[in-house]
Fold this sequence. Notes:
- The protein is of the alpha+beta class.
- It has helices at about 15-25, 55-60, 65-70, 105-115, 125-130, 135-140, 155-165, 215, 240-245, 280-295, 295-300, 340-355, 360-385, 395-400, 405-420, 435-445, 455-470; strands at about 5, 5-10, 30-35, 75, 80-85, 90-95, 150-155, 170-175, 180-185, 185-190, 195-200, 200-205, 230-235, 250-255, 260-265, 270-275, 305, 315-320, 320-325, 355-360, 475, 485.
- Strand 2 (about 5-10), helix 1 (about 15-25) and strand 3 (about 30-35) form a beta-alpha-beta unit.
Amino acid sequence: MFESVNSVAIVGAGSAGWLTALVLSAYCPFLKIRLVRPRENNPIGVGESTQPDLPQRVLAAGIDLGDFYVACDATMKCGIFYRDWNVVGDHYWHPFTAMADTGSYTAAHHYQQMILEDPRRYSHADYYARVHTSYETCVKRNLIAPEAATALHVDAAKLTQHLERCLTKVEVVESDRVEAVAEGGRVTGLRLDDGKTMTADLYVDCTGFARAVLGKIAQPKSLPYEANVNRAVVASIPYVDPALENHPYTKAQAHEYGWTWSIPLRSRIGGGYVYHSDFCSAEQAETNFRAYWGEDRLRDVEVKRISFDRETLRASWVGNVVAIGLSAGFVEPLEATGLNWTISCADLLSRFLCGRYFDGDARDKYNALMLGYIHDVQDFVDAHYLLSSRRDSEFWRYQTSRKYPERLLHRLALYAAEMPTAVNRVKSFAWAFNEVSWIDILNGYGFKFARVQVTPEDRARAQHALTQIASAARRGVDPQTFSPIQAGTPGARLSGSV
Ligand SMILES: Cc1cc2nc3c(=O)[nH]c(=O)nc-3n(C[C@H](O)[C@H](O)[C@H](O)COP(=O)(O)OP(=O)(O)OC[C@H]3O[C@@H](n4cnc5c(N)ncnc54)[C@H](O)[C@@H]3O)c2cc1C
């Protein structure tokens, strides 16, 4: 059925509702956008580690990034630092880098080949320092590396409040009760608590796990996926030593029965302990979480429990309803893909809506493209568990011996033989992780690549890139004062993570 579209109703006012409004405002200015927000608004309150697409979309919508930064209690995020994922005591680094756009055989690829050629001079342990200038700046010195500072940590509640203030053309409709009226597999309107019915050409379900709009017209198929974790305990942690704890990266530390995240904001740290309910109770998780941060520090802190074992939809656009955000699905917090997934959905939707119509073909294409993205996220996240050498608990013994999707096993075998490259990695649009991201993570597990055929020109170029990285200035910026700090000068914060 062909339908023209000039108006959209977004239901739900969590991050997904407001980010969808942000993207559609920027890319589909012709749309009349209304957002239904319950007066008793109850967003999930997590989702604070983001990817570079967030500031990009903020700018695209004409919002001042400086104001956004201050209003959202933001800090710069240069990457994710992993501790204890392969072996207790080790670490690895997954920074934002422009290297993936520099060819198929990058400095990262070359360094891995050099480990094979000359293991006495080259090692997995030295990889990050030799390939990413941000490693020394961020991880060793706890400073912002400008070349990697492309994303933000944001306060989830302040993010939605600021977007509501800035997106003045989005009409906010308040209603505590929203009932989607359905007929013939389509939504015909939203009945609000004042008795009125609101209509739109397209409805976007951003009601989180409630899936209150899409659920009215369909029971869409879910994707088969075995989640590694399905619960979290979360809290806002007060700083004890901001100079040390306000690091320019998200920290993901593995534990016997799950992992903790630390997301430093300007005024507090967002913290969570993620686990699987088959291996750990909520009480135990909270005990572990409190022990990790210190009983004293968390004495007066409220710890919230979140369960996220909802399935992901195979097709999130059905009829005239698109589910975006947690209503479409979720993998887990690792690698901070939730908001990126939301923005990717809204981006893709905007591309279809620009023609001011949609039909069954548009839906099919949208759903197929988003499926590629979701598989990419699932594979990337799963690799963190599957490849671990940890066997110190039931949790790790299970995660490292269980059955994983054939797709992932095939992918790892291909990458072992050829290395992940711009040629062989899955390039669905939207896509999640590039080939250098894959190498960064695989290196953390001492992944064995085979020797690959490289042209003399590619080899010389990659060798030159490694030499340039070795001599490049390590420019650092203090995360608190934003003052530039040169390598080795007094005042440099040398007490980083390792
Ligand atoms: C433990 C955990 C950690 C996470 N960490 C990260 C991270 O670090 N980085 C990242 O990018 N993502 C992360 N995510 C994902 C991220 O939190 C979500 O993608 C994001 O918050 C979007 O949520 P949402 O808006 O879809 O849902 P919600 O925040 O739940 O919002 C739903 C909205 O719908 C409204 N609503 C509900 N029912 C109805 C109804 N019947 N009628 C009308 N309105 C209704 C609610 O009031 C609310 O406004 C995390 C998720 C979890 C579970």
